[in-house]
Structures are given as structure tokens and as C-alpha cells.
Amino acid sequence: MHRGKVHKYGADVNTDVIIPARYLNVSQPEELARHCMEDLDKDFVKKVEPGDIIVATTNFGCGSSREHAPLAIKAAGVFCVIAETFARIFFRNAINIGLPLLECAEAVANTESGDELEIDLAGGKIKNLTRNLEFTAQPYPPFMSELIASGGLIGYTRKRLESRRV
Asked: Which residue has better confidence, 39 or 66?
């Protein structure tokens, strides 16, 4: 179980506003985090706290296929992103770096910025503690749960390689 405060956005939040192209020459996650969402919400990095949750409507992460976008979100301290739908390449990039994403239209429709959510990734359960509501998203299959728990594809691969050495 995880608890966090919501930062809510609308439709078509693209990778260029998640991390503006002028920062694409940066590769350090901490530096990317300092500029996360700055072209959409200038105060995001001042408001976000470790473990917070981004909620958005449709097509979150559309635009280019850069991995910088989910990396900036994760490095900013966001625990997960909940949206009605995600751009497919963003979805895959996020999973590859260990940033959980949940698709749940009902949760999006019944959540506002500042609400506190409790999330059970394994069961796909989302509780809006502020509004006393509960929603269910599709839980991850075991392989993807393990990949996220390992911190992404690199951590998962290291773990598997180490287990084979034993």
C-alpha cells in the first residue's frame, strides 16, 4: 500500500511538457527532475513531494518516444501516474524504468488535485481517502509487477542474472 497526494492534469500531456526539449542533453535524473512539468505547471517541482501521484485524463505521455519524460517524473519523486489512457510508447518506457502506471477512468473522474490516494499496485486498488471512494484498475501481470518492484528493466535483468550465478 502506498499513500500520496494528487497533482491532476488534463488530456494530451505530452513528453515536451513533461520534460521540455531544451533539457534533452541532460541525462542525470536529478537534473531532469528539476525541470519536470515546468512548461505545463511552473510550480510542480515546488509542490511535488516524494510519493505523490499524477492523475491525468487521456493520452498521457503522447509525443516523442524519449525516455527522459518518465525518468523526470520518477526522479521528481512521483510514485505513479493514473490516467484514463496512456500513449503506448510512454507506457512501455515508464515500465522499463520502474514507474508504475494505472489506467482507471473512474478514478480520474472522481479525483482532484490535493486529494489523498492509497494505492495497492498488486491488486490494482485505488482508494480516494479524501472522498471515501474506491476504484479498481487492471493489476499488472506477475512479470510486470516484478519488473516494477526491481526498479525497472535494468534492475530486473541484474536480479535475474545474479540468481543464475548462485
From this structure: 39
Angle at 68 between CA 75 and CA 81, to 5 degrees: 60
Calculate the alpha carbon distances from 131 to 53, 95, 127 in Å: 16, 29, 9
- Pairing between β-strand 2-8 and β-strand 116-120 as defined by DSSP bridges: antiparallel
Here the cell at position 9 is 492534469
pLDDT of residue 166 exceeding 70, the answer is: no
| CA 31-33-34 angle, 5° bins | 70
Residue 3 grid coordinates: 499513500
What integer is the mean pLDDT of 64-74? 91
> φ and ψ at 56, to 5 degrees?
-145, 165
The fraction of the chain above a pLDDT of 70, given in percent, is 99
